[in-house]
Design a protein that fits this description.
The complex is a heterodimer.
Chain A (H helix, E strand, L loop, with lengths): L7 E2 L7 E8 L3 H9 L7 E6 L6 E5 L2 E5 L1 H5 L1 E10 L3
Antiparallel strand pairs in A: 1-6, 2-3, 2-6, 3-4, 4-5
Chain B lengths: L9 E9 L5 H9 L3 E5 L6 E9 L2 E7 L11 H13 L3 E7 L3 H14 L3 E6 L1 H6 L3 E2 L1 H8 L3 E3 L8 H12 L16 H11 L9 H9 L3 H10 L2 H13 L4 H19 E2 L8 H9 L5 H41 L5 H19 L2 H17 L1 H14 L5 H10 L3 H6 L7 H10 L6 H14 L4 H27 L9 E4 L7 H20 L1 H14 L10 H8 L1 H6 L4 H10 L5 H9 L5 H10 L2 H13 L4 H11 L3 H27 L4
Parallel strand pairs in B: 1-4, 1-5, 5-6, 6-8
Antiparallel strand pairs in B: 2-3, 3-4, 7-9
Helix pairs in contact in B: 3-11, 5-11, 7-8, 7-10, 13-14, 13-15, 14-23, 15-22, 16-17, 19-21, 20-28, 20-29, 22-23, 24-26, 26-27, 29-31, 30-31
The chains are: A alpha+beta, B alpha/beta.
């Protein structure tokens, strides 16, 4: 039985976890800047660093980005089942 | 048309576009060599770099557009880049892509293709793409994209000739381009209808499809164009139509990435699981939640220590050289009027020479910073310091500007251009003068060396660094809340792959910053040293306390007394406004002492407490003239430099008063 995981904020993902971006809250400008950096709804991202405080590092479309915690919190994601990335 | 050897070459106008960190500047430097003209875009603090190169009877006029991720109207850089392509209509737009991050990079390519067909793609960093396990087929990509694609490794100058060839072919029309059309899915019919509505309107020469696209994206610049140029009836109809068809920018971004995915599905192969790279392994350590900060501190302590260690003997050498030049000038020009000789040997040469003796420190510091930047570490430094910078309402990128200021505040303030938000830039500029530049550190080190024997001196110097950092945080915190309130700007930063630094990039990085410093020495400080010389030499025949400079010192005496200064120290600080290191030279003149004996004279004339107060005050008291000038030009107003001068005077005076009074109460003075 595969249970569809719930949507959650990007900052609640652990390092190594993969997730699909569901929605990006707040601000047209912010959404367009994220799009330019490769993140739009539907993009699969991998969290590389998330220390529970401070900025996070995510990998999206083969590039890595540092995102302020406040910005990362506005990105709603749904974890993709079980996949993790080594390292 | 036959073109003989004497005929003027055919001009091809080339614009270089690309994301930041894709090696665009490297390619621009290779193409144009030193034939560059650097300035600002009119009315904007965005750097404008132009250059030219001659090849096979053609003159390629190259414009290096600002590095951007996109061509929206959200930043001055993006507006500059797209306006240039739209309005100046270059013959060829070269889009440089980072092959190791090709998917994200293509987002800019799509947007350039929305503007023009005359495109050549430079696929740079092919070596790094290989490291990531990417197999890219440039020929296949060329076929799918419909524009020339040139694989390159610009750091090794590979592919540059091929790029030039493609530029000439496209620029002269020998090779026609037919870019793969971009379809916007569900928004396509809306676009078509908008184009119909816009037909017959004066769009100031812009393509209707592009204007329609930007309307869907809610582009502010295009909205202004609409108000300016489109007739009220059409505007009314467009707005009515747009209200019924809510296709937001999301559909457009989605379509662009779908286009990219289609292109790359055929043009490249990626490993099923991403390869663990050298970058992953390094990042694992340097961005570690506990290790990150200590590693950063260790790196910068090493950098500063090495900088001062290596540059000290060089600076001493230069200093001695200018001293000798001064003596020699005085002797060689003995037959000229004495005021002229004095102007040169007592004013200009020591003034400018004093600044130039900082050249080694600044050169070496910028070399190290350039090394960290070019290798890719600086982006990690921004990541690691982000949390700390939040304390003063800034984010990690601002840390990088502050770092440059440890060499010289002038390039440090210019470096704030990397901050996207206007408010962040202002804040970073305003706190910038609190970072002690090499000159102020040198004055501090001289006093600390004279009054605090080893090992106390290291402790005192360390405390001074810490104090200035604490002041940066404190002032940033206050300014953010009182003067510049508002929402925090988002922190989003690309972390490039680590790579071996490139000598050419290092030379350019260091060169531009050095040039900013040298300009300051050549203009502001030259002028200031003449003024100080005038004030200290006139009226003719007066001894120092009775010259204009001396009288000024006595005027300041009531203020100086509050912090324990005598008139000479006040005058030294006054002259330090021209350039911080000048205050040492002034003290030497006012106490009639030179070199080693200045140490003894100072020791006889002030207590260690007063010396410490002097050091603290000179570290913080006011931005130097050159810094004020660059603050004005970067903020486009006198308001902010005046704010900086006012708060720093208050801060330095207040701290000086506090230390002096507390110290005296404790019986130290």
């Amino acid at each position: 039985m595969v249970k569809q995981p719930d949507a959650m904020s990007l900052i609640s993902l652990a390092p190594g976890q993969r997730a699909r971006v569901e929605a990006i809250c707040c601000g047209q400008g912010f959404r367009m800047r994220l799009a330019a950096l490769g993140i739009i709804p539907g993009t699969v991202i991998t969290v590389l660093r998330n220390a529970g405080a401070g900025p996070v590092i995510v990998e999206a479309r083969g590039g890595r980005l540092a995102l302020g915690r406040g910005q990362a919190a506005k990105i709603e994601v749904r974890p993709t089942s079980g996949e993790t990335r080594g390292g | 048309m036959a073109s003989g050897p004497k005929a003027s070459p055919k001009v091809i106008r080339v614009a270089l576009a690309g994301n930041p960190n894709v090696g665009k500047s490297t390619i621009f430097n290779i193409l144009t060599g030193l034939h560059q003209h650097v300035g600002n875009w009119p009315g904007k603090t965005v750097e404008r770099k132009e250059g030219a190169c001659r090849l096979e009877g053609y003159l390629l006029e190259c414009m290096d557009l600002p590095g951007t991720y996109s061509l929206t109207a959200h930043s001055a850089e993006e507006i500059v880049a797209r306006d240039y392509v739209l309005k100046e209509r270059p013959d060829v737009v070269v889009v440089i892509l980072d092959a190791s991050n090709i998917e994200r990079n293509c987002y800019l390519l799509v947007q350039v293709l929305e503007l023009t067909d005359q495109v050549v793609v430079g696929l740079n960093m092919m070596d790094l793409a290989g490291v990531k396990g990417y197999r890219i087929f440039p020929d296949k990509l060329e076929e799918i994209l419909g524009v020339p694609v040139v694989p390159m490794v610009a750091r090794r100058a590979e592919g540059c000739q091929e790029l030039l060839k493609a530029i000439i072919e496209v620029g002269t029309g020998q090779r026609a381009t037919s870019p793969r059309p971009i379809r916007y899915g569900a928004a396509e019919s809306t676009l078509a209808r908008l184009q119909e509505l816009l037909a017959g309107e004066n769009l100031e020469g812009l393509p209707a499809r592009w204007v329609a696209l930007k309307m869907l994206e809610g582009d502010e610049e295009v909205e202004r164009l609409e108000e300016r140029a489109v007739s009220p009836e059409t505007r009314e109809r467009i707005h009515a139509f747009l209200r019924q068809h809510e296709y937001g920018p999301a559909v457009i971004a989605d379509a662009r990435y779908a286009w990219i995915e289609e292109v790359l599905a055929e043009g490249m192969e990626r490993p099923a699981r991403s390869v663990i790279t050298f970058t992953d392994r390094i990042d694992h350590v340097v961005t570690h939640r506990f290790l990150g900060l200590p590693i950063l501190l260790a790196i910068f302590v090493c950098v500063f220590w090495l900088t001062f260690k290596v540059s000290a003997p060089l600076s001493d050498l230069l200093d001695a050289g200018f001293g000798r030049l001064s003596t020699w000038t005085a002797a060689a020009l003995a037959s000229y009027p004495s005021w002229f000789v004095s102007l040169l040997s007592d004013g200009v040469i020591p003034g400018v020479g004093g600044v130039l003796s900082f050249l080694p420190i600044i050169l070496i510091l910028f070399l190290f910073l350039g090394l960290l930047e070019d290798s890719g570490y600086m982006a990690r430094a921004a990541f690691v310091t982000d949390r700390i910078m939040h304390a003063m309402g800034l984010h990690g990128k601002a840390f990088l500007c502050l770092l440059v200021s440890y060499g010289c505040n002038v390039p440090g303030i210019m470096a704030t251009r990397i901050l996207e938000s206007e408010r962040d830039r202002l804040l970073a500029i305003l706190v910038n003068p609190l970072i002690p530049c090499a000159a102020r550190i040198a004055v501090a080190a001289f006093f600390v060396g004279a009054f605090f024997p080893s090992p106390k001196n290291t402790l005192v110097m360390g405390s001074l660094y810490a104090l200035s950092l604490a002041m940066v945080v404190f002032v940033g915190f206050v300014l953010r809340r009182v003067v510049l309130p508002g929402e925090e700007a988002p922190f989003m930063m690309e972390l490039p792959l680590y790579r071996k630094p490139n000598v050419r990039n290092l030379a350019v990085y260091t060169g531009w910053r050095l040039l900013a410093f040298l300009k300051k020495a050549g203009t502001v400080i030259l002028g200031a040293s003449v003024v100080i010389w005038l004030l200290s030499s006139y009226p003719v025949g007066a001894d120092l306390p009775h010259t204009y400079l001396g009288r000024l010192g006595f005027l300041l005496q009531p203020v100086g007394r509050l912090v324990g200064f005598d008139w000479r120290m006040s005058v030294a600080l006054l002259t330090g406004f021209a350039a911080k290191e000048t205050s040492l030279a002034t003290l030497a003149v006012l106490y009639h002492a030179e070199g080693e004996s200045l140490v003894q004279t100072l020791q006889q004339n002030m207590s260690p407490l007063v010396a410490l107060v002097f050091v603290v005050v000179q570290l913080l008291y006011i931005p130097c003239l050159a810094t004020v000038a660059v603050m004005r030009s970067e903020t486009n107003s006198w308001k902010w430099p005046l704010v900086a001068m006012a708060y720093s005077l208050l801060l330095a005076g207040g701290l000086g008063f506090l230390i002096f009074q507390v110290g005296r109460a404790l019986g130290l003075g």
